[in-house]
Amino acid sequence: MKTIFHIAALVCLSLALQAGARGQSQLQPPAGGSAPGQATQGAPLPTFNVQGPMELLRPTYELRPGDQVVIRAFEMEDISDRPLLIDGDGYINLPTLGRLKAGGLTAAKLEAVLVELLKKYVRVPQVTVTIVGFSSQPVFFVGAFKNPGIYPLQGRRTLVEMISSVGGFLPAASRRVKVTRRKEFGKIPLDSAVESPERNVSTVEINMTGLRENVSPAEDIVLMAFDVVSVEKAEMIYINGEVSKVGAVELQDKDSISIIQALTLAGGLTPAANPKTVWILRPVLETSRRAEIPVDLEKILAGKENDRPLLPNDVLYVPKLSGIKRNLGRTLLIALPTVVSAVGIGIAVSR
Questions:
Q1: Residue 3: per-residue pLDDT
Q2: Given strand 201-207, what is the order of strands in its sheet?
Q3: How far apart are CA 216 and CA 228, in angstroms?
Q4: 330: Cβ–Cβ under 8 A, 6 or more apart, which residues?
């Protein structure tokens, strides 16, 4: 699960930051003195990279006065590929179609309106609407937020303030937030921030638990235009077999927990548990299989061996005291449900 979210977040961030080189000019109306809302004849088309988070999160963003859009309509060249500025009343002026309300609509809803209007002129209208400029400087929220999307940065807003304004985190969100900032807005002012000369950005991971408890107030940084704030789903470890509470344990802001800690959270062993041979079932990278690691829990509890760490997505399996076949093999194919309930998880074990 972590790998999927990590890759998705990296793709979003990388594509968004490619748009950074376009500069601030894209936030302004096209030059040439045209009246607001009119298509600018001969004006150069903005080159904003529409495959960044703006495009990925487009359904959540409502157009507002001062935004710019480009419409591309099949067989309707007179309205296609021209930057249109949404006027103060939320309207755009289009050849053939006239004055049209765009403010308050998402790009997808505006597309649907245009498709209906163009049915008078085209048998099967095909329309795309692309946002190429914002009335205010945007901040991107990506990942396990309640309301991910593009939000205007109005005034001096801190990380905590902006997270609150987007509704906070999903229940399964990690407690670590990543902030990525473009180089032209300066390095993120934290010692833990890392600069990437190749991508012209700086990034930092912030522990929200410490921030909320006021342990690290300096990490409540002031956000800048085009910052990308991302959060993954929380990492889990799974406990099954002869324990009091079968289920998933959230790692929160930790990289791992020990076997003893996990068993304590699971309410301890049942009387039928066999502590002599406990199994850690660890994911094998880029496969659906799990390698089995035998652990002598009896020796750990007696202090004769060191406790073992459980890593993200590990399964800790405690077998019964008797009647268990010890032939699980070198690897084991496990089918874990996508959503783990409090009831527990299913593990394929030979009995």
A1: 45
A2: 149-152, 138-143, 228-233, 173-182, 201-207, 194-196
A3: 21
A4: 291, 292
As a whole number of angstroms, the distance between CA 257 and CA 220 comes to: 27
May I ask the CATH architecture of the domain 236-333? Roll (3.10)
**What is the identity of the amino acid at 255?**
D
CATH architecture of 138-233: Roll (3.10)
* CA distance linking residue 229 with residue 139, whole number of Å: 8
Report the SS3 class of residue 321: coil
Instruction: Kindly report the pTM of this predicted structure.
Output: 0.51
- The answer, yes or no, to whether residue 257 has pLDDT greater than 70, is yes
How far apart (Å, rounded) are the C-alpha atoms in residues 283 and 314? 7
Architecture in CATH for domain 31-133:
2-Layer Sandwich (3.30)
d(CA 173, CA 233): 4
**DSSP secondary structure of 238-306:** EEEESBSS-EEEE-TT-S-EEHHHHHHHTT-B-TTB-TTSEEEEEEPTTSSEEEEEEE-HHHHHTTSS-
Residue 271's Cβ-side half-sphere holds a number of Cα atoms within 13 Å equal to 0
User: Do the Cβ atoms of 71 and 132 come closer than 8 Å?
Assistant: no
Which residues, other chains included, contact 154 with Cβ-Cβ below 8 Å and sequence gap of 6+?
A: 136
**Domain ranges for the chain:** 31-133, 138-233, 236-333
Q: Are the CB atoms for 204 and 193 separated by under 8 Å?
A: yes
In terms of DSSP H, where are the helices of 49-189?
Answer: 53-56, 107-118, 159-165
Nearest to 229 by CA among 168, 165, 174, 163: 163
Q: Which residues pair with 150 in a beta bridge?
A: 140
Which residues neighbour 321 within 8 Å (Cβ) at sequence distance 6 or greater? 242, 272, 273, 274
Give yes or no on whether 138-233 and 236-333 have one common fold. yes
Q: What is the pLDDT of residues 34-85, one digit of tens each?
A: 333 333 333 333 333 333 444 444 456 788 888 889 999 988 888 888 889 9
Distance, first Cα to last Cα, the chain = 28
Q: What is the mean pLDDT of residues 210-230?
A: 85
The C-alpha atoms of residue 255 and residue 57 are separated, in whole angstroms, by: 29
